[in-house]
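Long-time lurker. I teach an intro course on protein structure, and each term I like to show students one example going from raw sequence to a predicted 3D structure in token notation. This year I'd like something fresh instead of my usual example. Would anyone be willing to generate the tokens for the chain below so I can use it in lecture? Attribution to the forum is fine with me.
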Amino acid sequence: MIYSLLTESSVHTIQSHPNPQKQITPVKRPHEAASISFDDFDLAGVMLPHIDPLVIELRVNQFTVERVLIDQGSTLEAMYYKTFLKLCFTELDLSLTHYPLFGFNANLEYPLGKITLLVRAGSWSLDVEFLVVKLPSPYNLVMGRT
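-- Reply from a regular --
Happy to contribute to a lecture. Here you go:
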């Protein structure tokens, strides 16, 4: 599991709501997320019961990215530096981050920065903020529950 700290601005942000009478704090903000589901067809070749990680491919910024780990325990989306470079970005494309990550190893890790990219899975599209980390990994991206 990978954890990040909330930024100060996100702790105090109040999202507008269709009903102006009802103010919603970040803690009470409704979570509206599209779902991606799997059926028995997707289990072809899988021996049950299994504890295999869910690894998929996604379209990111006009590229198909393979080896995307879905980590339900993660609170962020991470992009590894080698993937960042292969998507034709440079460090000039990154925004600053001021908080560490927990869970990559025994030490705190500070991301190189963050970048927001369009991610598509089937007909579903969403702008996703990735924290770019310069660490070795068998995966290209980690998608968390955010």
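Some talking points for your students: Strands lie at 3-4, 54-60, 63-70, 77-80, 101-102, 113-121, 124-133, 141-143. The radius of gyration is 17 Å.
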